[in-house]
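On clarity, I found the account of how folds are encoded harder to follow than it need be. Since the whole study asks how a given chain folds, the encoding of that fold should be made plain. For illustration, here is how one protein appears when written out as sequence plus structure tokens:

:::
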Amino acid sequence: MDDSYFCGGSLISDVVVLTAGHCVKGFSSFEVHLGALNFYDETEVGRIIVNTNVSTLHENYNGLVINNDIALLHLPDPVSGPNIEAVRLPSWTMANQTFANETGRVSGWGKPSDNATSISPDLKFADVLIISNEECQAWYGELVLNSNKICIGTNGGTENICSGDSGGPLVIYEDDGLPTEIGINSFVTSFGCESRFPGGLTRVTRYLGWLEVNAGITLRP
């Protein structure tokens, strides 16, 4: 973002990237890397870099309590390639699922530890336990933790999202073995990524109508 900051994102169609609202708020230009594994190796086979200055921030985004932390980047031309594929979004029948006690997978190039001074060069993955909103509210309170959010356990502080992971996906694997994005990496506590505090994410199922309208996609029934 503006040649200064880094966020993650997910391709949800061949022209739209889903990310966090705070990754768009206040920024005007975005360099999108697609098909990357080692972020710093721009010679990777299959890597595509696209620039855009067109974004859509949720109209009710609130940075103070990190609410409606969702946004889109609109690419100038369709993208495709052997290492590039849009992730599936939840179906309308999943709108009321909590996903509590299911296993999800988060990913990103964020800091690998609180002591790290920069993002990870390599894309990292962690399989995490999705916890209930009631359990997460016990850590963050109701002002911050509402129904628009979903939380992940940290396995005692050993697995979590961190700075630089914002905007990246939390996916579950449905019965067909394919991933579905149900969360957008949003926030961690000021005590650090390695604290026992849960990771906080935007709950994608709360925004299905918004996504259909603003991303121009049709979701599964």
